[in-house]
């Protein structure tokens, strides 16, 4: 069987609504045979229905007019001709230099969901909660919305008695059935918040949570099962905080996380993978670049030291795919960095130095985003150069071939906006663009 390619990104359509909802889906065998479909509910595993071809395809792609098809990762695709021989031979090598040419705008939110920056956000499957923040007039917002990537649609969150008050840089996570929004501060630093609430997307109700002893803004979060870890961040005056706390939905309670090995640091590289949170490098509260790293395991409520980075740096891009830990870029006091490392056992090994993006760093919650692609590659976008100029482009690193492909420039800066990885797609929304608050969003996937 001949194989051809999937071309440009397209708007996603149709997927079952909300989380863990049951609906009839094709089997994997049917999908791999090129399952015919009339709607995306006929597909499984996040695939969507290409209406023109009438078959399930990988999200973010449309089929070309070629008579034979492969997925964008070069493996046998769901868009192949039905009845094709299963022994068609190995897929061709992935061409690292071929990436989609541009970002795709997402649908605009409802008018009630105004442009904002410094919002809280969290991902649950193909949905993204965006809540709070501050608008262009300096009004602190207590409104939110959930964006559905597969439907390219928005749903406003409710405003009830349990909704938190307006604030910036609140922390958010998915608990398995509800979103936790907690902490944050006023933009001028005059007040900070120790309260929060759970939002249930099924009932559209907010339920206030217990207060925590220490307020935190812009912290790192890890949601796993019904637990949420919140680590580091800043107080209302911008002072760097250390240690972590855990929230448990059962019992609506907070408890300190054990044996924190990290100390006070900001602009750390971090990567969440299942029940684990990796924290690498960063800048101490005294302004010193750091090389130490640690891993938190939610199941054992414990930190363990990881191999130190070869050189101290902060503002690293980082990602973990369940097997490999990858870091790239960052900066120190003298320069922005443009090299990368893979952790192999107990040693950091350098990655390819040809074709990578320009040197840059990722200031915490402000700019710089990473994503794991659906085919094992690592994506980085945005960030700042050493002069703190926002960067809009990025790169895709393939550990299988130790090679780079470019990420095109986004249409806007999205500083202090939403930057998340949604099922292998980088999604950017809101924030500021040349100093003006925006309500625009865009997405990109290799």
Written description of the protein model:
With 446 residues, this protein is mainly beta. It is 1% helix and 32% strand. It has one helix spanning 28-32; strands spanning 6-7, 48-50, 55-57, 62-63, 104-105, 120-124, 127-131, 144-148, 153-156, 171-174, 179-182, 196-200, 205-208, 220-224, 227-231, 244-248, 253-256, 265-266, 269-273, 276-280, 283-284, 293-297, 302-306, 317-320, 325-328, 340-344, 347-350, 369-372, 378-381, 394-398, 403-407, 418-422, 425-429, 432-433, 436-437, 441-444. The chain has a 4-stranded antiparallel beta sheet, with no helix packed on it. It has a 4-stranded antiparallel beta sheet with strand order 6-7-8-9, with no helix packed on it. A 4-stranded antiparallel beta sheet has the order 10-11-12-13, with no helix packed on it. A hairpin with a 4-residue loop joins β10 and β11. The two termini are 24 Å apart. The model is unreliable at 1-34 and 58-97 (pLDDT under 50).
- Beta-strand share of residues: 25-35%
Low-confidence stretches: 1-34, 58-97
Radius of gyration: 22 Å
Report the oligomer: single chain
Strand order of the largest sheet: 5-36-33-32
Fraction of helical residues: under 10%
How many DSSP helices?
1
Q: What is the typical, i.e. mean, pLDDT?
A: 84
Distance between the termini: 24 Å
Shape: globular
- Counting helices, strands and paired strands, the structural category is mainly beta
Main sheet makeup: 4 strands, antiparallel
> Would you count the extended β strands for me?
36
